[in-house]
Description:
The complex is a heterodimer of chains A (259) and B (267). Chain A has helices spanning 3-30, 39-53, 55-86, 88-103, 110-117, 121-145, 149-157, 162-173, 175-199, 205-214, 218-246, 248-258. Helices cover 85% and strands 0% of the residues of chain A.
Amino acid sequence: MTKRTKLLGLGLEILVPLAAVGVLAIWTSQQDSYYYPPLGDVLSTFNDTWLFERVGSDLIPSLERMAVGFVIAVVAGVSFGLLLGRSRRARIAATPIIEFLRAIPPPALLPFAILVMGVGSGMKIFIIAVVCVWPVLLNTIDGASSLDLTLEDTTRAYSISKRDRLLRVVLPAAGPQIFAGIRLAVSLALILMVISEMVASTNGIGYFILQSQRTFAISEMWSGILLLGILGYALNMVFVMIERRVLRWHRGAHASVLS
Amino acid sequence: MLRVDHLKKTYGEGDAAVEAIGDLSFEVGENEFVCVVGPSGCGKTTLLKCMSGLLPPTAGTVELHGTRIDGPPEKMALVFQEYSRSLFPWMTVRQNVAFPLRRKKLDKARARELVENAVESVDLTGFLDRYPWELSGGMQQRVAIARALAYQPEILLMDEPFASVDAQTRADLEDLILAVRREYGVTVVFVTHDIDESVYLGDRIMVLTPSPTAVQQALDVDLPQPRDQVETKELPEFARLRAHVYRSIKRRQGAAEPEMAEATGGG
């Protein structure tokens, strides 16, 4: 890529979103509708609400639930995925059950979760974990079961211990697939966090958005939606950065094969 | 030290069964450099996998120092053809070479010494902290050789290790393997389909038949040591051996049924 096209790309990347915001600002300022408050109002509400008045009361609890549920899902998904990926029989036995559980639409579990666990954080963490685990689990199984045959032979020829084989060969080799699953899980965690807070909660971003709508605080409602957008964008960026670091070898090895 | 006794390997069962190795017997002596050469698809890789305990033979045995091999022995190291897939891309050169030593529970200084000596033997000391994919093909294969050497094997099995590098690199690697073999005093079984290579490297050459594989001929190589890419290859004896092996393979290949020659057991 030449310097010029690079500059052009960067320009487009910044200018187009700015233009979109501009159009939105003009459009909303022309609107008489109560439901589309001017962008300026939404932004000042955002400023009043989220910087930083409701951070402790709503943002932090939401992030906490999401983080805990997500971590549980990743740890469980990767651990079971590695084990199932290494045993063909276990995989054959487990696949129908996994496929069935995965097929249940997550919100359908909410009534059950509320019944058993109430409306506290535990229920939300459970829902987030139960839903996020599937992409991580399935991708880990896929990665762990498709270890390159030469690598497999190499670990056997050098009598690498079972533990090292699993943690230092199979796990990193499955890294690219695992990360693909994790990124899916991140967006699922955000969705499930919002849904679970809307259905039954006393705080959280999802709760705040629904409460605002019910009390006709439309600017507040939009500020919550805006926050979620920013949150999703930032989380994805963070994970792209982590992935680039952790899987540097993968991109390097891939590039050297192509060259 | 290594004895292959009436080895037989069949893939599949019933009508679909493919006989890769028919009946194979030979011995490899202490400190010997044996080249195994044969037409492509003659089951060389299968033979190597049976010898290293990676594949169970259908019949017959492989013994190392009189002990039957039923899994990869500790005193044996393997170098594969596909260096880029045999090295761990998420480990540096140092980590790759050190990885098989973890099981040996050596003290840290000793392990470090083994790794650094092995890497020095293949002339890659400056690249200890690089990743394999940052290196050229020939250098990657040298890392694989260093990993095998650091493992301190008595016997080194190599499966067409130089088949996927360019000619110049290949000549360099051939000399390198002769040098490290002298330095480490290790027994080598070297599988190749390259006749020149087998004559240049070997103390003895085993010529295999097309599959189902058997030993067609074993011949001693009486070329002076150390070998030299120019001088050794100028010798009349080199030309004679080369022609001999070549005819031996060709004759058999011509006589064999075409589909027999194509029947594969890998490599």
